[in-house]
Amino acid sequence: MRVTxxxxxxxxxxxxxxxxxxxxxxxxxxxxxxxxxxxxxxxDSEPARPTVPAPRPPDLTDAERVARxxxxxxxxxxxxxxRDLAPDPVPLDxxxxxxxxAASAPSGANLQPWRFVLxxxxxxxxxxxxxxxxxxxxxxxxxxxxxxxxxxxPLGTDADKPFLxxxxxxxxx
Length: 173
Hints:
Pfam families: Nitroreductase (PF00881). This protein is mostly helical.
C-alpha cells in the first residue's frame, strides 16, 4: 500500500498551528524580510535586524591564505554525520538559537529566502515520517542506482526513518 502525503497541506497545517511558546508546537521561522541589508525576524514576534557590513579582511600573504585554507579543511574533516539520534528533550530556545544562525546564512541579494518550521507535534511528525518513508521506499526500489545502494549499505541507511518521530524537534526548511 502506498501512502500519499499532501506535503503542501501538511506544511500549511504546520504553519497554521504556529506558536513560539510550547510543547507540541509547530513554530515557523522566516529568514526573509526587510530586503537587502536586513535579516528577517527569526520568530513571528521578533523584528527584523539590520545587518552590519563585515570589515575588509586583513591582507594576507599567499602562504597565510594556504595555511588558513588548510586549517579550515582540516577542521571540516573532523565533522561527523550523526545517524543515531537521541530522543532526549532539547530546549526550544537552543533550537531557536541554531535556527537564528541558519537564517542569517548568505544568500543571493541577501534576501535569505527560506522559511524554517519547527515541528514538535507528534501527529505532524508521524505524517512527515510516513511521507518520507513512502518516498524513500520508491527511491530505493526504483530509482537508486547500485552504486548508491552499495555506498549506503555499510551505514545501515534504508527507507525506515524512525528518527522523524522520535526526535524531539524537526526543523523543516
